[in-house]
Amino acid sequence: MNLSKKLVILPFALFCLSTLAGDLSVDLQKACIKEQLGAHSEIKGHPVEAEDFTEYCKCETGLITEKATKEQLNEISKKQSTNPNWLNELKSSAFKICLQPKGQLTT
C-alpha cells in the first residue's frame, strides 16, 4: 500500500478506534452505575439514585480505559457479561482512587 492510501486510511482508523472507546466508555459507566445501585439498594432509609454514582463511575471508567490494554478493552467490549480478574483489579484500584476526597494529594 502506498503512502497516500495509508494517509487516507489512517484518519478513518483513528476515528473508528475513538468511537469504539467512546461507546465502551458509555457502556462501562452504565454497568458501573447498575452495579453501584445494586450494591447500595439494601441501605435502609436512604434511597439511592443513578445520579448518586455518576462522578464515581466516570472516574472508575476513566481509570479502566486509561490502564487497560487495547486487547483487554476489546475483550470486554465483545463479552460484556464477563468479569475477568484484570478488570476486578482495575476496579479495586479505581475504588481507592475515586473515593478520595477531592483536592487531597496522594504520594
Any overview of this molecule?
- The chain is an all-alpha fold.
- Helices cover 69% and strands 0% of the residues.
- It contains four helices and no strands.
- The protein has helices at 3-39, 54-67, 70-78, 85-98.
- Helix 1 (3-39) crosses helix 2.
- The longest helix is centred in the first third of the chain and has 37 residues, at 3-39.
- It is globular and about 45 Å long.
- The protein starts with a helix and ends in a 9-residue tail after the last helix.
- The model is unreliable at 6-20 (pLDDT under 50).
Low-confidence region ranges: 6-20
User: Could you give the distance between the termini?
Assistant: 48 Å
Strand content: under 5%
Total count of strands: 0
Q: Sum up the overall morphology in one term.
A: globular
Order of helices and strands: HHHH
Treating each run of at least 4 consecutive H or I residues as one helix, how many helices?
Answer: 4
- Global structural class: mainly alpha
Mean pLDDT metric = 79
What proportion of the residues is helical, as a percent range? 55-70%
Largest sheet, strands/sense/barrel: none
Radius of gyration in whole Å, from Cα?
Answer: 17 Å
